[in-house]
């Protein structure tokens, strides 16, 4: 079945080219095809650019011809799975839209495109997703998560933490299982992890700060300030008195210049707040650096 999916996607791209050729478009080494203001397809320097909206429209016309039984999303998921394992697929932001990039070696490219383009080397296909309405049949977030899991989870953790600034602790300690107030800085970090599906896999469920430190140390994911520059989504541990008694924890929001910005629960024993610290502050003990990519 997987081979059928791959064949279907190959056929889709190939048929798209046939379709454009039938519209009196010829593809030499460098060319483009435009309708209105947007480029539908362009082949230049061994890169084939496809505007997804045109591909999506085209699929409606060729669906009966292809006779594939699964939907487009599953075909894309399958091709992404295969190419991700071979490190040949990636998704990234390009200005205000997403790009799914697939790499075909020269042999694959010749078998797919030799009748339509002059293949000189390996070919990179860039499928451009510009309009949310036009791509509603594809779960872009799911593909992005699959290809860029560490980056996506870090962004989601930080975004959720930002949304909590100003909140008091009831939501978090009640989620943990308490019916009364507790010191909840660790609880807050655990809650963030749970909401993003990484609790107990990348971040522990913990109420004592030392337990969090020990967890990251056991996974060789504890980094000290003199050896590491933190990233958004890392966990930051504080030792206020610089006496190796770890007192507090939060999540790194960002690093700008010589400062690290963190979002922490139970600040002043009251609420979630944002804090700004110098990277070389004596009271920053260490960072937990989860590997969100697995």
Description:
The protein is α+β, with helices and mostly antiparallel strands and 294 residues long. It folds into two domains: 2-147, no CATH class; 150-288, endopeptidase fold (from Nostoc punctiforme), CATH 3.90.1720. 37% of the residues lie in helices and 26% in strands. The strands form two sheets. A six-stranded mixed beta sheet has the order 1-2-3-6-5-4. Strand 2 (38-44) and strand 3 (47-51) form a beta hairpin. Helix 1 (2-22) crosses helix 3, helix 5 crosses helix 6 (149-164) and helix 7 crosses helix 8 (185-195). The protein is elongated. It starts with a helix and ends in a 6-residue tail after the last strand. 32% of the residues are buried. Residues 18-40 and 61-70 have low confidence and may be disordered.
Spell out the key features of this protein.
alpha+beta; endopeptidase fold (from Nostoc punctiforme); six-stranded mixed sheet
Would you kindly provide a brief summary of this structure?
Helices cover 37% and strands 26% of the residues. The protein is built from nine helices and twelve strands.
What structural class do you assign from the helix and strand content?
A: alpha+beta
Q: What is the tally of beta strands?
A: 12
Query: Roughly how much helix do the residues carry, as a percent range?
Result: 25-40%
- What sort of overall outline do the alpha carbons produce when their principal axes are compared? elongated
